[in-house]
């Protein structure tokens, strides 16, 4: 089975983290609007329907807070991945540079040996 290598740049990964951050902000804004509506309705809405709405809102609010924490962790994780990819790319480039330098040194050494052989 052939393994395909997938390459994603750190900037693409950071772009994904930015999208997650934007989504988090949207969810947070919607949550604040819902909380405002809930608070306002509590001042004038009474009765069984009001109690049912309050109960439903409290459950939903808990789920939204859980979602926001999850999105924050996801964004942080994606940012860490971007940092690790950057670090890995830098290491790979340094190894490539060192290998190239070693190859040049070996070639130079071989040429010097040839010169010494031809001088004998």
Automatic annotation (TrEMBL):
- Biased composition (Basic and acidic residues) is annotated at 86-120
**Which Gene3D superfamilies does this chain map to?**
ESAT-6-like (1.10.287.1060)
Chain ranges passing through the membrane: none
Q: Which InterPro entries match?
A: ESAT-6-like_sf (IPR036689), T7SS_ESAT-6-like (IPR010310)
A family per Pfam: WXG100
Write out the ranges of the annotated region (Disordered): 1-20, 80-120
Under what name is this protein listed?
Answer: WXG100 family type VII secretion target
Q: What is the native source organism of this protein? A: Paenibacillus odorifer
Record lineage: Bacteria, Bacillati, Bacillota, Bacilli, Bacillales
